[in-house]
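My main concern about presentation is that the manuscript never shows what a single data entry looks like. Each protein is reduced to its one-letter sequence and a matching series of backbone shape codes. For the editor and my fellow referees, an illustration may be useful. For illustration, here is how one protein appears when written out as sequence plus structure tokens:
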Amino acid sequence: MQTEEIELIITNNDIVIQMMEIANSALNSIPKSQQNGEYKEICTKIQSFIDKHCEHHIVYDLIDINPDESRTIRYCEKCNKTFH
């Protein structure tokens, strides 16, 4: 496989993950109490797809807990999954 082909595959995967994350966020904006079984299954399948195919790029960030305390968090820059 040539370098151009590898870059294209990576770029396409990133775009797919980004679009799936947008869909996931939109679907999860509906309150759980208003989601039926089929709707929840779609949400679960999208999340499973993201978990399986995202090539995580972990970033570290500091969040303020209160004015005197901060905490470091880790999350994927591509799919926004948090890691503990």
User: Anything to note?
Assistant: The mean pLDDT is 88. The chain is about 50% helix and 25% strand. The chain has one domain: 3-83. The beta strands are 58-66, 69-76, 82-83.
